[in-house]
């Protein structure tokens, strides 16, 4: 049974930082892309970025300013999302997702973790 479990969300003041973690279990994810998505209230879920199975990370255009950084530890089957200089509009439920290399679809999803940024 494949499971992705996010942690690290919470309430933070604007300008603060949080690091989210996503622990994967059920298989070895070194051959998988592991991504972060988020969904703000009243909005559609959006792609933040992904740690690629081949190495490195890619980010959606809105997240290339450098406030968000994705990293992974294959030995721990864990992917991280470091978020700095948080803004009120970063308030959302953040989801971790996984897909096999060369796949187009993220087939594994976590339950999400709430991030609330107070202004």
Structure, described:
The chain is mainly beta. It is built from no helices and eleven strands. The protein has strands at about 5, 10-15, 20-25, 30-40, 45-50, 55-60, 70-75, 80-85, 90-100, 110, 115-119. Strands 2, 4, 5, 6, 9, 10 and 11 form a seven-stranded mixed beta sheet that branches.
Task: Quickly list its features.
7-stranded mixed β-sheet, 11 strands, single chain, 0% helix, 4-stranded antiparallel β-sheet, 119 residues
Got a strand count? 11
Please, what is the average pLDDT?
Answer: 94
Number of helices: 0
Q: What is the percentage of strand-forming residues?
A: over 45%
Largest sheet features: 7 strands, mixed
In which range does the helix fraction lie?
under 10%
- Catalogue the unreliable spans: none
Gyration radius (Cα, Å) is: 13 Å
| Basic shape | globular
Distance between the termini: 40 Å
SSE pattern, N- to C-terminal: EEEEEEEEEEE
Estimated structural class: mainly beta
Brief synopsis:
The protein has strands spanning 3-7, 10-13, 18-25, 32-39, 46-51, 57-59, 68-73, 78-83, 92-100, 108-109, 113-118. By secondary structure, the chain is mostly beta strands.
